[in-house]
Design a protein that fits this description.
The protein is of the alpha+beta class and 209 residues long. 51% of the residues lie in helices and 8% in strands. It contains 9 helices and 4 strands. It has helices at 3-18, 31-43, 57-68, 72-81, 88-96, 98-109, 123-140, 175-182, 196-203, and strands spanning 147-151, 157-160, 168-172, 191-193. Strands 2-1-3-4 form a 4-stranded mixed β-sheet. A hairpin with a 5-residue loop joins strand 1 and strand 2. The radius of gyration is 18 Å and the shape is globular.
């Protein structure tokens, strides 16, 4: 099994524990809506393109609403069992689903709380998330007006954004927290170092990946 598979099982357990009507960090989506999103992404290839392509979003939303209206236990089971054998995500689960499962798990865990409470993750998990950050950071901070550096407590470092920028904002924290920020989440435990206006510009970026 893979880290993505393990995270999927933990996510499904958390969904079952908090229930379908609990909030998430995904706007006005409930946990039921988030579960339906994951199901159509992996099981409804006709509707999945609308997740990424705005002209198709209306159809995707209609399909997602229909899936969300289904029986709750079955919906969670579909998340738990993952993509069927005919889905392209089946062969690529370990490669493409770790970030998706991790971030959406935290979307549930951190919703409605005054302060985020990071989990204790294994060194293997943190290293895998650090690996994801290489691509995510290039996308998330591509429009930053300053150089964006990321650093971990054990000294790993990367930088994104304009190489010609004269100023830098540094984000310091565990790989998991850096990945969440790159995915557009603000409920993170990070230190920001730089000029106040530069930090504000980085926090205000549209970082959706």
């Amino acid at each position: 099994m893979s880290l993505a598979h393990d995270e999927r099982l933990d996510l499904a357990d958390t969904m079952a524990e908090v229930g379908p009507d609990a909030p998430t960090l995904c706007g006005d989506w409930t946990v039921r809506d988030l579960a339906a999103h994951l199901v159509i992404r992996e099981r409804r290839l006709d509707a999945a393109p609308g997740i990424f392509l705005p002209p198709l979003a209306g159809y995707t939303r209609k399909v997602q609403d229909g899936v969300a209206a289904g029986e709750w236990v079955s919906l969670v089971d579909d998340v738990r069992t993952g993509p069927p054998v005919w889905s392209p995500y089946k062969l690529l689960d370990a490669q493409v689903n770790l970030g998706e499962m991790f971030v959406h798990h935290e979307d549930i865990r951190r919703a409605g709380t005054a302060a985020p409470s990071p989990r204790e993750l294994s060194p293997e998990m943190q290293s895998a998330l650090w690996g994801l950050l290489g691509l995510l950071g290039r996308i998330a901070y591509r429009s930053a007006p300053v150089r964006v550096a990321v650093e971990t407590p054990d000294g790993r470092r990367r930088a994104f954004g304009k190489k010609s920028a004269s100023r830098t904002v540094t984000l310091r924290g565990e790989p998991a927290e850096l990945v969440l920020h790159a995915f557009g989440r603000d409920a993170v435990v990070l230190e920001f170092d730089g000029e106040a206006e530069d930090i504000a510009s980085v926090k205000g970026l549209d970082r959706g990946v």
